[in-house]
Design a protein that fits this description.
The chain has about 300 residues and is α+β, with helices and mostly antiparallel strands. Helix content is about 65%, strand content about 10%. The chain has two domains: about 180 residues, no CATH class; about 90 residues, SH3 type barrels (Roll), CATH 2.30.30. A five-stranded antiparallel beta sheet has the order 4-3-2-1-5, sandwiched between helices.
Length: about 300
Amino acid sequence: CRGRPTPSEAAIAQPIARATKLEKQTVAGRSARKAVALRLGDTELVAMVSAFLDKRWVDVLTFAYLIDEERPGAVENATQTMDELIWTVKPKATQEQRKALIAKLPPLLTALNKWLDAIKWQDADRLQFFAELAECHLQIVRAPIELSPERQLELAVEAAQQDALRRIALEQASIEQEREQEQLAHEGRAHDQRAHDRRTHDEKTPDNAAPKDAAISTVDELERGMRLEFRERDGSVRKVKLAWVSPLRTLFIFSGAARQESFSLPAEKLVEAVRCGSIRVLSVEGVVGRVLTEAMQEAVNDPGPKRAAG
């Protein structure tokens, strides 16, 4: 078994942990916002609940995505709670629908409070929201039913059809979201293949095609172990090693010559630094990199065969 971590490993352990956590939060937040945005397009959604979902339930879903690996079913539960809340504030044209609403409220309120406790939303706005929600439910239950049984049945069928169509749309969106998450998870591991594909594509691209940003290409091809040269504002030059790349390649951690000092750069800032010339890739660490570097140096230093006089 391994002993204590080396000084260089210890120096980047905390930055790696922070970067990994940040990436997970970014992906979780993106997924949560997409899920809520799909529901906000519902024309029957009352403004009070719409604002609640946008301001509060995005945080709930983000939290659910973050803990879903440790607590499977968290995302499903938070999503179901959101959908049930939306259903309860829609008009109920039949007595059966109103009875179903009354039966659904106790477990729904319990689930809502559980999730809001989890994100620590405890201010007066929370009390105001539940007061307005109770008033909304009361108005729905007390609204007069002036429709014939036949018309009530027609409305119930229409509502069921709309719910079915909306459910299908949400399921399709969920499938697309899962595919996107899988793609993001595999991007880091599939980077070498993508880089190869890009190089092949560039070779086949016509001369009149728009050139690819060289800085982005350089950053895309960076791998752990590469050495780079950073030119500081005062003109000094610092040589560093790329110690770690986050799974989604949004953060790069470098270690200095002392190996006990480390710093990180987000991908967009790294691209900008490469573009303006303050960062330059030196070589690839390892046997292959050293062999290539030595071969290039020999090629430069070799004057080549001399032409015969005359």
